Each structure stands twice: as C-alpha cells, then as structure tokens.
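Entry 14. Structure prediction run on the chain below.
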Amino acid sequence: MVEHKKTDNPEFDAAVEEVNKFKEGGVQVSQKNQLRLYGCYKVGCGQTVEKPGMFGGFDRKYMYEAYKQVKEDEGKSAKEAQDAYIALANKLKSGDNSDWDA
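Output returned:
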C-alpha cells in the first residue's frame, strides 16, 4: 500500500485512513466500489493516471477508466472528488455494500 500524503482536507484524509483499514476490519468492498474510490482518490489528490498501452493489462485499463470517469466524464474538481470519496467511504463503513452508481 502506498502511503497517503496529507491534503488540506482533514475529512478526506481521515476517510482515506479508514478505507485503508477496511480489509483488516472485515469491510467488504466490491470491485466496482474499489475502482470508484481509486478514481476519486487520484483526482482528489491531483494525481494523474496514464492510459495503458495495448499490453497494459486489464487492471490498469480498469483503473484508468475509473480515473477518466471521475476526471473527464463527470468533470469533477479535486474538492468534488474528495467529497465523493468521503460519501462512498461513509456508505461502505455503514455496511451498505451496494455498488456505487452514477
């Protein structure tokens, strides 16, 4: 796991720490929700994800698509992506494991 660099949003930072403990806490997260969290995290931290080449593998393709959906398709700012991350993290923490839906 890559260490999270703190942002200027303590609520987002706390949500990231909680999500990183989901597995050890027994919180189940679907692949769709994992990808959504990933996309929101990358945009929320101002990071970019490079489009994988033809032989980049399915994992990298799905990760790029999750990032692209948040950044380009939905046009979320870093703050909006952080808010979406927090909302999904809270939903999952409460035991609602239904997949995120646009």
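The chain has a mean pLDDT of 92.
Filed with the rest of this week's runs.
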